[in-house]
Amino acid sequence: MKLISLRAKTAAGAFAVTATALLATATPAQAATYNVMDNCDVPWINCTEGDLWLFYNSKEIAVQGGYYKSAFTMYYSNVSDHWGTSQYQGSTLTTYRYVFGNGGNGNGQYMKNNAASVQNCARDDNYRVYYNSGYGGTSQYFAKNGPYGDCNITNLISALKNNNASSHFA
Questions:
Q1: Nearest CA to 81 among 45, 32, 121?
Q2: Is 97 helix (H, G, I), strand (E, B) or coil?
Q3: Is 166 exposed, middle or buried (0-12, 13-18, 19+ CB in 10 A)?
Q4: Residue pLDDT, tens place only, 112-168
Q5: CA 56, CA 88: separation in Å to the nearest integer?
Q6: Nearest alpha-carbon partner for 98 in 45, 31, 155
Q7: Are 33 and 97 in contact (CB under 8 A)?
Q8: What is the biggest distance separating any 2 CA atoms in the chain, rounded to whole angstroms?
Q9: What Å distances lie between residue 5 and 9, 10, 14, 16, 97, CA to CA?
Q10: Torsion angles phi and psi, residue 89, rounded to 5
Q11: How far is CA 17 from CA 22, 26, 44, 85, 105, in A?
């Protein structure tokens, strides 16, 4: 058995104390998380309003008597992950999570894999909703609204109901 000198033990102990002190005083990265119901509320996304509305409930429950009974979220532009988006701003990681809002059934629930119906109110843009993040897998096409501004609400197909992960201009 090899003996370690007292000097080596003392030096190793001093190194461990110094390393621990340095780790304890290091500045941790900051993180901020916000919930939004419209991707236009994310500062680094340049848009004015959401045109694609995804509802928590199927269309039979989402809109009744001309009133929204279901919570919804709105998107404008391509959204590669319905879970949310993050970006470093200096040493702070800022994350925006997409949630259903505006009261009603599902209010405050995370949007990814929870939508049952869609309404495309865009005058000029067609959309697709996808099963996977990054615009992959099964998808469903939603045409732009009609010439009279009619925003028809459509149920997601069974493969996408509560399995929605991204949306893209079509």
A1: 45
A2: strand
A3: buried
A4: 999 999 999 888 889 999 999 999 999 999 998 877 767 889 999 999 999 999 999
A5: 30
A6: 45
A7: yes
A8: 90
A9: 6, 9, 14, 17, 56
A10: -125, 95
A11: 9, 14, 43, 39, 55
Q: Angle at CA 118, nearest 5°, toward 122 and 155?
A: 140
- What tokens were used for 168? 């893209």
Give me 4's structure tokens: 């370690």
Residue position matching structure tokens 């919570």: 71
* CB atoms closer than 10 angstroms to residue 17: 10
Write out the H or E segment, with its range, that includes residue 118: strand 117-120
Tell me which residue has tokens 């995370």.
110
- Residue closest to 75 by CA, chosen among 116, 111, 107, 109: 111
